[in-house]
């Protein structure tokens, strides 16, 4: 069994990005600049944005955080989006979700210029993924694809079972792995709460992507010997064995599944650390005009 | 076995649309207006556009065909798109494909205002389908969904196998049937040329959608007893038994598969006639501002 080390890979990629940014600066090119918008004082959102800011610094990006109280109006937020869309100094920006209930998240997301939508949430970026055109891929699916690449995990012709049909993980990773691409060219089955014979379906999978948000859902008994297991779940549970009093667990019963899998991502330290790296990669692509010509 | 009669259903839907258009006219509302752009003199394109024009007349729509020689420049075509985008008299328009090689189809498609993109080819409409937002669905997948509705074919929790991953059929129908919707909520496996164990996968399917463009590919031997079979293939082959000297056959070996299936679409007369109806439905939705508020 090979443990997929998201911390190691993400550190490597950050170094690669940092090197590239250094060279860009040497050539007198503009420093990539990411803006994060945060509304209100949600603890998890603060943590995420903090990590993103720190990661930007690590790789040499410029980074700005725009803070709004949760009394901000939709109009004010849309005006900010418009300003960022039209500011040539800003390569990409993200709207940290969730937003307060009086603001339409969808409306705000659709207001973002797709060229600067480094979170890959704009429908045009999702649609371009379906068609197979260059697009910003959202953080988690992009991180999974990157792990397949770095660990040289063959996906062509493999049976992939994705558990969970969320808009930001299950659906896009299903589409990506179905594409004529590498990684890709897999035979993908997208399963969800209405799936009737999940155990039977999972037992045929060469690769399982668990993204349903149900702690320790995937057990060894369900799995084919030697399957690749990607665990996207992150649930915080109480623990007496940690200083903080809680720990993170995934959608996979790691202790037993790891004995049967050929490759497996741990939680934490698997897919998680890859998500911020995906955002950095998208921002670099934006700065270089790789997805949409400048 | 129930033969799914696309001719009958499409005639019914045309009558329903005609009735609604009559009522719209009575209320003094604008008549829905579809424009088709055709470039060059491709025989198949002429036939399709001719059918579309005739169908518009049947339901009481206004319809215009804009013809260009295949020497038209991309710039001229983009200017025409821009004019139609901004013409409030036009509810929807379509660019008959293929376009001459010197013109980027993708660029022209992306220039169409998504609000008037009644062919559903713009990436934003595909992306909205992925997210589960209201969107124009392209003709063939929309026609299949309509047949499921009209024949009350249960899709929730069913194993659906789609054969063929084209951008206009395989991918969108896979996405639609995976959605939390009715029809939808199915467990969908998207298969293609790189799929290794297709026979095994198809043998588990409650519903098979054959859209690979390989005549009589799906045989009875591959199928589970009582499965629903949707045949999207249309291949023209020579025939001594028809006046014209050729006939249309599908991706399904109809004679034998029809004995094992619970529902089956014939070719011709199954999915085919539904495609124009989907276009009419999208145009009606455009006129009423159902997908995007006016």
How would you characterize this protein structure?
Two copies of one chain form a homodimer. Chain A has two domains: about 30-115, 3-Layer(aba) Sandwich (Rossmann fold), CATH 3.40.50; about 140-270, 3-Layer(aba) Sandwich (Rossmann fold), CATH 3.40.50.720. Chain A has about 290 residues and is of the alpha/beta class. Chain A has ten helices and eleven strands. Chain A starts with a strand and ends in a 6-residue tail after the last helix. At the A-B interface, helix 5, helix 7 and strand 6 of A face helix 5, helix 7 and strand 6 of B. Strand 6 of chain A pairs antiparallel with strand 6 (about 185-190) of chain B, so a sheet runs across the interface.
What is the topological layout?
The structure is a homodimer of 294-residue chains.
Chain A: E1 2-3, H1 6-26, E2 33-39, H2 43-59, E3 62-68, H3 74-85, E4 92-95, H4 105-111, H5 123-131, H6 139-150, E5 159-163, H7 170-178, E6 187-191, H8 198-203, E7 207-210, E8 228-231, E9 235-238, E10 246-249, H9 254-260, E11 263-264, H10 272-288
Helix pairs in contact in A: 1-10, 2-10, 6-7, 6-10
Q: Which architecture of the largest domain in chain A would the CATH scheme give at its second level?
A: 3-Layer(aba) Sandwich
> What is the number of helical segments of chain A per DSSP (H or I, 4+ residues)?
10
Radius of gyration of chain A from CA coordinates: 19 Å
Helix-and-strand structural type of chain A: alpha/beta
Shape of chain A: globular
| Domain module tally of chain A | 2
Tell me the greatest interface: A-B, 37 and 37 residues
Terminal-residue CA separation of chain A: 44 Å
Mean pLDDT of chain A: 97
| Helix content range of chain A | 25-40%
Strand order in the largest sheet of chain A: 1-11-8-7-5-6
CATH fourth-tier homologous superfamily of the largest domain in chain A = NAD(P)-binding Rossmann-like Domain
* Oligomer status: homodimer
By CATH reckoning, the class of the largest domain in chain A would read Alpha Beta
């Amino acid at each position: 069994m090979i443990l997929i080390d998201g911390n190691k890979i993400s550190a490597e990629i950050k170094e690669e990005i940092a090197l590239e940014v250094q060279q860009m600066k040497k050539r007198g090119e503009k420093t990539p600049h990411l803006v994060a918008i945060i509304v209100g004082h949600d603890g998890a959102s603060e943590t995420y944005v903090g990590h993103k800011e720190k990661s930007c610094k690590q790789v040499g990006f410029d980074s700005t955080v725009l803070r709004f109280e949760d009394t901000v109006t939709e109009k004010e937020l849309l005006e900010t989006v418009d300003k960022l869309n039209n500011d040539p100094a800003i390569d990409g920006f993200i709207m940290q979700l969730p937003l307060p209930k009086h603001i339409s998240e969808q409306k705000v997301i659709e207001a973002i210029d797709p060229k600067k939508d480094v979170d890959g949430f704009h429908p045009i970026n999702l649609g371009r993924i379906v068609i197979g055109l260059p697009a910003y891929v959202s953080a988690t699916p992009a991180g999974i694809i990157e792990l397949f690449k770095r660990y040289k995990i063959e996906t062509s012709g493999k049976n992939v079972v994705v558990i969970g049909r969320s808009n930001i993980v299950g659906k896009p990773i299903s589409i990506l792995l179905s594409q004529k691409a590498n990684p890709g060219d897999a035979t993908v089955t997208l399963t969800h709460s209405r799936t009737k014979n999940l155990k039977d379906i999972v037992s045929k999978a060469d690769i399982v992507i668990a993204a349903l948000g149900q702690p320790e859902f995937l057990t060894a008994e369900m799995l084919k010997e030697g399957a690749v297991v990607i665990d996207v779940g992150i649930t915080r549970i109480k623990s007496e064995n940690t200083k903080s009093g809680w720990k993170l667990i995934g959608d996979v019963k790691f202790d037993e599944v790891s004995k049967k899998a050929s490759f497996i991502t741990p939680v934490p330290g698997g897919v998680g650390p890859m998500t911020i790296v995906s955002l950095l990669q998208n921002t670099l692509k934006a700065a270089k005009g790789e997805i949409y010509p400048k």
